[in-house]
Amino acid sequence: MCATVCAGAPQKHEQAQAQENPSTQDSVSVNSVKADDVSVRAGEDLTFTVTIDNPPKFDGDDVMYRIIGPGETGIQTSFRLHPHQRDYKVTYTIPAAAPGGTWTITLMGVFDGIKHHPFQTPKTRTFQVIANGDLVLPTVVSITVNPSQRQLLRKAAGNLQLRIQDLKAAIASYQAANQQGRIPQVLRTNVDDALAALQKTEADFKKLESVQSQAGVADVFFGDLRLNYDEALKNLGYSAAGVLPDLMNVAFPGKPQPKSSYAILVQATLRPLEGNVLAYNIVAESGSLTFDLKVTSNPSGAAVSYYRRGDPPHPFADPTTAVIPSLPYAIWYVKLEKPGYKPLVREHDPFHSSDHVVNVELSQ
């Protein structure tokens, strides 16, 4: 198999004229080529020709190839082979932000749909990429909430606040009548109804979207609120089975509440409803679905990663002091690691910590 390289051709995976009598030498070797024989500016198309020795008899085989630049930047992909066709033109668009320098095309083997068949000697070609010196990339992005969406959230927050007041009144009446056993059921009913209202608000909110890029951030915002309700339903599930969960009283760490008491269960159930009201009002008033989180440490220079509940950590490029831009409104966890110090994780609740700063004292 051989490969030749040219720049600027517009074809993508198009058939070239087959050689009438390709020699064995042509079909199995790649002639050496200097890196400066071909120069492609970042953002342009690179087209290279591949000749195979044994064309397939059936459709379905793919030639796997890799295009790698400085710092192992690049991709691994493939192009489809066709019966009785020897020559192929393949086009790869060099990313506009690609680094300058020597890049390499490596033809690795054939994938038949089940198994990879590597070439005995991978075929390579090099080419030169000219970097864009005036490349400008955005560094900060925010997702705004349009007036109709803000009105929707304010209305939903008001309705949920009325539900909370009615729920508290119902609980007080059961306590006064010494009917605490009915409390878990009324809590479950209200959580179920609040969760249904959340889902409807999310659907209505997305119908009012003015930009497509808002969808993913809205998923995170509403999804995080849903996690709070799921936790409340989990606790209520224990009570439905006749066992109250061992919820902790934060005023007295390490001391569980007596299982005959419903007070902590009520508090744990009200928390996601009240947090939902607060989240709606903050987004409505700020007019944004995102915020910037500043992370500092003493000493500075700690590696930063961040994640939501149930997600793997996302490493952040800059060490402390760092500003993680445009996080969707949700509860986030920040992990800081520095050689010689204990790794630490801190929770940031943007609805209760409006300064959006995580400051950590590292200890050895």
Verbal overview:
There is one protein chain. The protein is α+β, with helices and mostly antiparallel strands. It has three domains: 2-130, Sandwich (Immunoglobulin-like); 147-286; 290-361, Immunoglobulin-like (Sandwich), CATH 2.60.40. Helix content is 30%, strand content 29%. The strands form four sheets. Strands 3-9-8-5-6 form a five-stranded mixed beta sheet, with no helix packed on it. Strands 1-4-7-2 form a four-stranded antiparallel beta sheet. The chain has a four-stranded antiparallel beta sheet with strand order 12-11-14-15, with no helix packed on it. Helix 3 packs antiparallel against helix 4, helix 3 (183-207) runs parallel beside helix 5 (263-286) and helix 4 packs antiparallel against helix 5 (263-286). The protein is elongated. The relative contact order is 0.10. Residues 9-36 and 240-260 have low confidence and may be disordered.
